[in-house]
């Protein structure tokens, strides 16, 4: 493992799940335990599923699907046609959107905010904006309408040791 990836892994908090930073062995063990957990859960869930099947009449499956192949093939044909039509509709919609938006670049970065636009937005002078930007810590108080009422400059907190 490279030294830079181990440094990066050491910096990440435990709550961030990054499989790409795991070794193949770690991913395999995780997949093994996940599969084992699912199998145990299904084994414990099976009696409840059986009770639900008895309650809702699973024996009807034998009567209407297994014993009556003609009805099953008719149902499967209807399902296949429905899936095909839904797929065609999705392709038509995708093609329509491609044709409509193929030359439109909607992923442009936002325009830079100038001090003039910022001052106009906040309803204060450009000189005040320049002064506020030089401060490291500010407390900005607003009224009910979102207008700036007061700005308090605070001393910067000392960096952690």
Task: Summarize the structure in words.
Helix content is 61%, strand content 8%. The chain folds into three domains: 10-57; 58-103; 115-154, no CATH class. By secondary structure, the chain is mostly helical. The relative contact order is 0.03. It has six helices and two strands. The chain has a two-stranded antiparallel ribbon with strand order 1-2.
Using brief descriptors, characterize the structure shown.
elongated, 161 residues, two-stranded antiparallel sheet, mainly alpha, 61% helix
Summed over residues and divided by their number, the pLDDT gives a mean of: 82
Rounded to the nearest angstrom, the distance between the terminal CA atoms is 30 Å
Given the C-alpha coordinates, what overall shape results?
elongated
Query: Strand order, biggest sheet?
Result: 1-2
